[in-house]
Amino acid sequence: MQFMTDIDDIDRNILRVLELDGRISNLNLAGKVGLSPSACLRRVQELERTGIIKGYRATLDPAVRGATITIFVMVGLSEHLKKDSVAFEEAVAKASEVRECHNITGSVEYLLRVEVSDLAAYKAFHTDILGTLPQVGSITSHICLGSPTDKRA
């Protein structure tokens, strides 16, 4: 796999434009980065082939899924064994409420982004899913009041 140090300024410019608009046509992308369409396409295909571009996706309004509340959940594990981390990660991957799971450093092991319809739905998730996992030692919930900057695609 290629690493970020292996790409040049043109590739960085392509990536910057694609991050802002993953649906831009190759013709428009080529114009923005100063390449011919064929050269631009070859570069984008190479960035995809090497895994630097991992994919493209649509960013949906969570309310369409009925998720009107976002809660960031810090989870501490009761044990620090690999089997516990693996079991926890497998369990939260199955929970539709969990939109992101990050293994982090600090006082807890995981930070989850959870999206639910209301507080009753979060309570059910907290009690019936997180609360039943034997690996969970602590749960701290932070209700999101707004996201003035969100650059996830």
Protein topology:
Blueprint: H1 9-20, H2 26-33, H3 37-49, E1 69-77, H4 82-93, E2 98-103, E3 110-116, H5 119-128, E4 136-143
Antiparallel strand pairs: 1-3, 1-4, 2-3
Helix pairs in contact: 1-2, 2-3
Features:
36% helix; single chain; 153 residues; alpha+beta; Arc Repressor Mutant, subunit A; 20% strand; Alpha-Beta Plaits
Uncertain segments are none
Output mean pLDDT.
Answer: 93
CATH homologous superfamily title of the largest domain: Lrp/AsnC effector binding domain/regulation of amino acid metabolism (RAM) domain
Structural class: alpha+beta
User: What is the CATH C level class of the largest domain, in words?
Assistant: Alpha Beta
Helix percent reads 25-40%
Number of discrete helical segments: 5
| Spatial shape | elongated
Give the spatial strand order of the biggest sheet: 2-3-1-4
Task: Tell me the β content.
Answer: 15-25%
Overview of this structure, please?
The chain is of the alpha+beta class. It folds into 2 domains: about 45 residues, Winged helix-like DNA-binding domain superfamily/Winged helix DNA-binding domain (Arc Repressor Mutant, subunit A), CATH 1.10.10.10; about 80 residues, 2-Layer Sandwich (Alpha-Beta Plaits), CATH 3.30.70.920. The protein is about 35% helix and about 20% strand. It is built from 5 helices and 4 strands; from the N terminus they run H-H-H-E-H-E-E-H-E. It has a 4-stranded antiparallel beta sheet with strand order 2-3-1-4. A hairpin with a 6-residue loop joins strand 2 and strand 3. Helix 1 crosses helix 2 and helix 2 crosses helix 3. The longest helix has 13 residues. The chain is elongated and about 55 Å long.
